Amino acid sequence: MKKLLSLLFFLFSSILLSQIKGKVTDVNGNPLPFVNIYVENTYIGHNNK
Fold first, then answer.
1. pTM of full prediction above 0.70
2. What is the DSSP string of 5-23?
3. Better pLDDT: 21 or 1
4. Most distant CA pair in the chain: distance in Å?
5. Contact between residue 41 and residue 30 where contact means Cβ atoms under 8 Å apart
6. Please, which residues have CB within 8 angstroms of residue 31's CB and are 6 or more apart in sequence?
7. What is the pLDDT of residues 14-23, one digit of tens each?
8. Spatial distance between the Cα atoms of 41 and 22, rounded to a whole number of angstroms
9. How far apart are CA 20 and CA 48, in angstroms?
10. Strands 36-38 and 45-47, how do they pair?
């Protein structure tokens, strides 16, 4: 039981710490302010404010 809880905790914490980093730009390479990024067909997203 203790090993199962440790495994679940590890998996859950690794999901929370996962990040995608990058820059959203227009066709000229200029950064776009206040964009929203969402993973398609999910509720996962990030507001860049």
1. no
2. HHHHHHHHHHHHH------
3. 1
4. 55
5. no
6. 23, 24, 25
7. 666 667 778 8
8. 21
9. 12
10. antiparallel
